[in-house]
Inverse folding.
């Protein structure tokens, strides 16, 4: 039996994945490491350094190119794979901090394109034998930031397979139109977000060619995830926003809320709280007061959505009680 616990792990910023895999092969997965105590210590030593390297690659230095983002994501994916087997709890505690730093630094592209799409968040029953609760809400909640949702929540394959059953000639045309809608590119630009959003909704949610409720919901979730992301970018990109830009963003947000009141107010309500908190954190009081508050762009509730019926619910009013403001409808009621 050979103890290798005295080695000094090294992972370079240039070839982190190759260095990490070499360390794991030599000091964790090697046949020379037979006792569990040494194996565990070796893994912890390597994993700690690997996570520190990810932090350096993401948060130290200048902006990251698309190519480097891909490399970091592959490195992170390998770290998660091993963590799911050796120590998912430590990984889960660490990756929450990574998420929070990404959002704080407005690194939405990496968050959406890699962390979310590639499911690099917390380990859970779907990918680790350490867990057995497939109903645990924590993995889903991890991804509910910057307008994103967990990929495994976006499409119900069983309902789609039933919908796309083409065995009956009489229903051939409708499923073809609907299945095409499922694969659309939900592109919303920073230059014309409102026009892009309206077009996507008209073509892929409100179209007469789409009648299946599951597909409508899936398409809506796909569009609104991007819409939330764009609002976040428009508001919180570095640099000040002009009064004209603020008005355009507010109009875009108003349309998003109107649709949310009809299709999915719960997701909007959870997301808009994050927007409010970020506005407060960045001291963007003008936008908060003149648009979010005055135009009532806060949570959907019984006043504007049939999903609710409690006109006495205090939550919508409390949402606006920041930076010296209060809900406009609260003022009316007082009179």
């Amino acid at each position: 039996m050979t103890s290798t616990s005295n080695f000094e792990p090294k992972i370079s910023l240039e070839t982190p994945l190759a260095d990490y895999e070499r360390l794991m092969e030599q000091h964790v997965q090697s046949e020379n490491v037979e006792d569990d105590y040494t194996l565990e210590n070796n893994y912890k030593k390597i994993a700690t350094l690997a996570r520190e390297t990810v932090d350096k690659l993401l948060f130290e230095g200048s902006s990251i190119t698309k190519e480097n983002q891909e490399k970091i994501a592959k490195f992170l994916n390998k770290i998660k794979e091993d963590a799911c087997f050796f120590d998912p709890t430590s990984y889960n505690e660490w990756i929450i901090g990574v998420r929070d730093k990404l959002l704080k630094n407005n690194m939405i592209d990496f968050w959406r394109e890699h962390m979310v799409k590639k499911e690099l968040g917390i380990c859970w029953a779907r990918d680790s034998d350490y867990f057995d609760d497939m109903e645990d809400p924590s993995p889903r909640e991890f991804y509910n930031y910057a307008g994103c949702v967990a990929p495994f929540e976006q499409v119900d394959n069983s309902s789609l397979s039933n919908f796309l059953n083409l065995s009956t000639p009489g229903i051939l045309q409708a499923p073809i139109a609907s299945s095409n809608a499922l694969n659309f590119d939900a592109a919303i630009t920073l230059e014309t977000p409102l026009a892009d959003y309206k077009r996507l909704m008209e073509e892929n949610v409100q179209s007469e060619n789409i009648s299946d409720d599951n597909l409508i919901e899936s398409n809506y979730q796909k569009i609104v995830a991007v819409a939330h992301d764009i609002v976040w970018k428009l508001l919180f990109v570095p640099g000040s926003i002009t009064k004209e830009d603020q008005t355009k963003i507010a109009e875009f947000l108003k349309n998003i809320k109107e649709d949310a009141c009809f299709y999915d107010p719960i997701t909007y309500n959870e997301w808009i709280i994050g927007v409010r908190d970020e506005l407060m954190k960045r001291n963007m009081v003008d936008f908060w007061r003149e648009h979010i508050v005055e135009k009532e762009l806060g949570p959907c509730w019984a006043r504007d959505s049939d999903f609710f019926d409690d006109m006495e619910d205090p939550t919508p009013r409390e949402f606006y009680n920041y930076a010296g403001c209060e809900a406009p409808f609260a003022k009316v009621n007082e009179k």
About this structure: The CA atoms of residues 263 and 315 lie 20 Å apart. The radius of gyration is 24 Å. Confidence is low (pLDDT under 50) at residues 155-181.
